Amino acid sequence: MTRRVDEKKTRKALARLRRAKRKSEEQGEGEEISLSEWEAEFIASVEERLEEYGSAFANPEKGDLSEPLSALQNHKVKEIHKKASGKARKPMKRGGGLQARKPMNRGKGFQPCANVRDISDDFEPDAPDADAPAPPAAAPRPSGPPKLTVVKGGKEED
């Protein structure tokens, strides 16, 4: 099953490949910038597949089926074009993954306090009256296991 790729998009992709190749050849003569063996082989193979099939990839998981180049092929062509232009390539960041979130007040010396008001601070303690009876003393709690007793006056027997 062949897929339909717009001829205009295929021509644009071929032009980008040829432009990158031409630019690298021009820069390679006067300066130290030149394509590696792998990059030259990559450009040649992609160019050949574009001319023959109109597309350089067949796996639908690799990119949009209406495009002539997959997402990674597009990225690589852009990298080659930047390299040929003399712009430095940014290295990939490794180990950036998921990290613990840092608190916003870290290192600022600010200690948060609770915004809670104690209402007992509003009242002055009352002085005990001399005439008032003393509160009853609490009975001492028994220690040990509880003792069960029978309560009389329950059910009447006939």
In terms of topology, how is this protein built?
Elements: H1 7-30, H2 37-53, H3 71-85
Notes on the protein architecture:
By secondary structure, the chain is mainly α. The chain has a domain at 7-85. The protein contains three helices and no strands. The chain has helices at 7-30, 37-53, 71-85. The longest helix is centred in the first third of the chain and has 24 residues, at 7-30. The radius of gyration is 43 Å and the shape is elongated. The protein starts with 6 loop residues before the first helix and ends in a 73-residue tail after the last helix.
Write out key terms for the chains shown.
0% strand, mainly alpha, single chain, 158 residues, 3 helices
What's this model, at a glance?
With 158 residues, the protein is mainly α. It has helices at residues 7-30, 37-53, 71-85. Helix 1 (7-30) runs parallel beside helix 3.
